[in-house]
Design goal:
The protein has about 300 residues and is an alpha/beta fold. It has 9 helices and 14 strands. Bound molecules: NADP nicotinamide-adenine-dinucleotide phosphate. NADP nicotinamide-adenine-dinucleotide phosphate binds next to α1, α4 and α5.
Length: about 300
């Protein structure tokens, strides 16, 4: 099978498409033909080892000191089950599934074997492979941080999402809408239209206005891009209000119940895939370069093969 191999940390060009052995399907695993994956901010951070200070050492210890220990990067996938191990009960051949592998990586490939108990579930019935692959990264992160901020515990909380147009941002906006909060977002004026399309009326464009001067107060402030801080926003919080950020040491944890929740929301049309660009697998270097620039709106998807190839 083809896979994008990352044999050293560095710029997008370190990724090279190569032929590698097909993964085996063990007794507790399903073999998935990946139809789509996504290039997320986390992927480019790992590829380029883009962290500062002592975290670089931590990352090298976790991921591999001189090069990634797991050379096939990529953490999200949507595809078709093509083989099941003998102990598998939840999945059948030909079913469409999507999932997230976290630090196991391995999704920049045509096939992946995953444990039935890993973060994998059936795709929303109304989702394309591209849409399904675009959802897990941003949504898992948004669910983790907004749960942590207590979005479910306050009645109609006033919420500010800073950096609302990235993968995490667009998921957080939709999740906030689902919880029926009073929402204000901060993004660049380039993102204003997208926010309007997601039903947000209160948009502060950071290139036109200093959001810290708003007279409003909030119960929750979620920094979804890691580019502001609690000291900067503290005066905007109501008493007892919470500030949470993707930019600290707190890491979002992936849970299968969250993936199932995402599927339900998508099927109820409470969650939309916001896809900025789609690249073929052969252009994965270009996809990484685009995500590296840090300006994408929503998600960048990579398709592994023509859908027609496997439609039966
Ligand atoms: N802690 C965790 O567990 C965790 C999990 C996932 C992600 N993260 C981190 O969360 C961050 C966001 O992830 P992501 O995948 O959503 O990133 P992303 O999609 O690459 O974010 C890009 C978006 O951020 C906007 N942006 C850039 N600079 C901004 C600024 N100064 N103020 C407001 N918006 C700005 C860009 O639009 P404009 O340029 O038009 O403003 C663009 O839409 C990343 O740093 C990632 O590493 C952390």
């Amino acid at each position: 099978m083809k896979a994008a191999i990352c044999s050293q940390y560095g710029p997008p060009e370190v990724l090279q498409l190569q032929e590698v052995a097909m993964p085996l399907c063990k007794d507790n695993e399903i073999l998935v033909k990946i139809m789509a994956t996504a290039v997320n901010s986390g992927d480019v951070r790992v590829r380029g080892l883009v962290v500062s200070g002592f975290l670089k050492i931590v990352m090298r210890l976790v991921l591999g000191f001189f090069k990634p220990r797991r050379p096939i990067l990529g953490t999200v996938y949507a595809g078709i089950v093509v083989e099941t191990g003998k102990n598998i009960s939840q999945f059948k051949v030909d079913e469409k599934v999507f999932g997230i592998t976290g630090f196991k990586f391995g999704t920049y490939a045509e096939y992946i074997s995953v444990n039935e108990k890993s973060i994998v579930t059936h795709m929303p019935i109304n989702a394309s492979f591209e849409a399904a692959a675009s959802l897990p990264f941003g949504w898992h992160t948004a669910i983790h941080f907004l749960e942590r901020a207590g979005i479910e515990n306050v009645k109609k909380p006033k919420v500010l999402i800073y950096g609302s147009t990235g993968s995490v941002g667009v998921a957080a906006v939709q999740l906030a809408n689902y919880f029926n909060v009073a929402l204000t977002v901060v993004c660049s004026s380039e993102g204003r239209e997208l926010m309007r399309n997601l039903g947000v009326d209160n948009v502060i464009c950071y290139d036109l206005q200093d959001f810290t001067q708003t007279p409003q107060k909030f119960d929750i402030i979620f920094d979804a891009v890691g580019k502001t801080s609690k000291p900067v926003c503290k005066h905007l919080l109501n008493t007892g209000g919470n500030f949470v950020t993707v930019g600290g040491l707190d890491m979002a944890t992936e849970k299968v119940i969250h993936l199932q929740f995402i599927r339900q929301l998508f099927e109820k049309r409470k969650c939309r895939a916001i896809i900025d660009r789609v690249y073929p697998f052969s252009d994965i270097v270009a996809a990484h370069a685009y995500v590296d620039a840090g300006r994408k709106k929503g998600d960048v998807v990579v398709t592994m093969c023509e859908i027609d190839e496997v439609v039966k």
